[in-house]
Amino acid sequence: MRLRSPTISDGVAVNELVTQSPPLDPNSCYCNLLQCTHFAGTSVAAELDNNIVGFVSGYWIPQREQELFIWQVMVAPQARGQNLGVAMLEWLVDKLNPAALETSITATNTASWRLFERLAKERGATLVDAGSLFDSKQHFAGRHATEKLVRITPQLGNQSL
Fold this sequence. Notes:
Layout: E1 2-4, H1 11-19, H2 29-37, E2 44-48, E3 51-61, E4 64-75, H3 84-96, E5 100-106, H4 110-122, E6 125-134, H5 136-140, E7 147-154
């Protein structure tokens, strides 16, 4: 398994991976091409036998340049159960050294909760459920579950995750 920054040639494979990864919201291929180009520096692709089997997209939060927002984490069915999600997140944290990390997770997405709880534990960091980021009724017109804001910050005395 090789972890690396994505390239433009990964866009279609990432788009196909999203469709294999419910409950992730599907994006247009155009969006995934942007993730693999404009956001390549804050994303990671996992490659096995010349196939993309994992992908994490992220970006620096505007006006909070040392804080990384993780947009999506996906692992192909054949690569699940190998801690690839945590490995990709740790690769990004080691590469970027953010002061804090944020993501959003629906209340019922237990796999994502476990993933980010594990990352926090392995980094000696604190995970906080910071309330609703996007409310089901107010922001999604009832078409999507509420997205909870999750924030991971270092323990006192640590400078980064």
